[in-house]
Amino acid sequence: MTTTLSPALLTDPGLHATGDPHGLWAWMREHTPVHWQPAGDVPAFWSLTRYEDIRAVYRDAATFSSAHGVLLRRAELGDDPGGGLTLALTDAPRHKQLRGLMADWFNTRAVRGLEGHIRAATRTVLGRALDQGACDFAHDIAGRLSLSVICHILGVPARDHEALYQWTNEAFEAHTSLVAHPRLLEYFEELLFQRMEQPTDDLVSALVNGTVDGQLLTEEEVVLNCENLIGATENGRLALIGGMHAFLEHPQQWQRLSDDRGLLPGAIEEILRWTSSATHSMRVAARPCEIRGERITAGDRVVLWLPSANRDEDVFADPYRFDIARSPNRHIALAAGEHFCIGSTLARAEMRVLFSELLDTVRRIELDGPVRRLHSIAVNGPERLPVRLTAT
Ligand code: HEM
Known about the structure:
Number of domains: 1
Low-confidence stretches: none
CATH class: Mainly Alpha
Strand order of the largest sheet: 1-2-10-7-3
Keywords: Heme, Iron, Metal-binding, Monooxygenase, Oxidoreductase
Mean pLDDT: 95
Number of strands: 14
CATH architecture: Orthogonal Bundle
Order of helices and strands: HHEEHEHHEHHHHEEHHHEEEEHHEEEE
Helix content: 40-55%
Bound molecules: protoporphyrin IX containing FE
GO molecular function: cholest-4-en-3-one 26-monooxygenase activity; heme binding; iron ion binding; steroid hydroxylase activity
């Protein structure tokens, strides 16, 4: 094994920014699909790289707990402060009740009702980019669009979107936690008090007035859940950017989509599979179990590498080919089981609207400088995607 095939490198953000993680994952799927990684910068953990194993862990929430955090963190940071409090970081039965409080805001009907807002926000950011001729697709288009949509759902007034956008960019730069960034927390605390006095038709009001086990959520729970939703949106943003990047690298697929818009739903699934922007999910074993003959002890961390699952050659034919007509395409970019991404319908709608608006209004879109990838082990994809746009 050469050093570039050392599984220990998976926790090095440099590998995901400038290296070849797919080469390493392919090697691990074949040679060490259930790999024990001793403690280093982060505590010891098991790495899973095969699709079936990862899917099975996601679907067994009774054995694999989310309440201690779902991201690897440096040992000195301790457990995630949102543990047991936010949707992503709770187990049954609390998880189901919390999810029940939020589900109505993200279901198909709710997202259909949001389409007008998504389209208007898309036209604003695209119009600005077309006027300028060149922009950073990551920052000026995808970032602003996805933040505007989640702010709308939460009930953040339009005048505050820009400030939230700045704080969000700063807060999640380190990509090690889904929660606990003081400025965002303060902001949501203030909004929470406003909605306590005067509830409106938004998700913050629903959280403020909602109950779990007959009890109102605490202020801390409301605020952390709002912030967690903002953080989770990072994946939606990365799917938009990664999708654009994939099309820039595969212009014949963009042409194909342009010739046949009926391919768009399949193209969205392929973008999700191809980009797999959530790099890993972590679980902690609540009881002893076995995976492929390896004995997992209660308390062990188990890390699921999603981009690896979505390139598993046992599941996907020709997995390294970006093919917008791929069928079947049973990717697990949005996880599986009880914690299946609650924002999945919304993320798909944002992709559908943005790519169809681009096809309608932009004649040519070209790369306009070097692409820089994120330096993170939690999420992956282009952090900067400079493009030049020409209107139709
Ligand atoms: C509009 C954008 C999005 C929002 C608001 C959102 C929100 C969320 C939330 C709140 C959860 C926790 C669900 C639960 O625990 O019951 C979640 C889970 C998850 N989401 Fe999303 N998400 C978005 C887009 C995406 C995208 C585009 C991807 C990947 C391409 C993604 C991948 C995941 C994964 C892998 C999980 C499982 C995390 C875990 O439990 O370990 N999300 N999402």
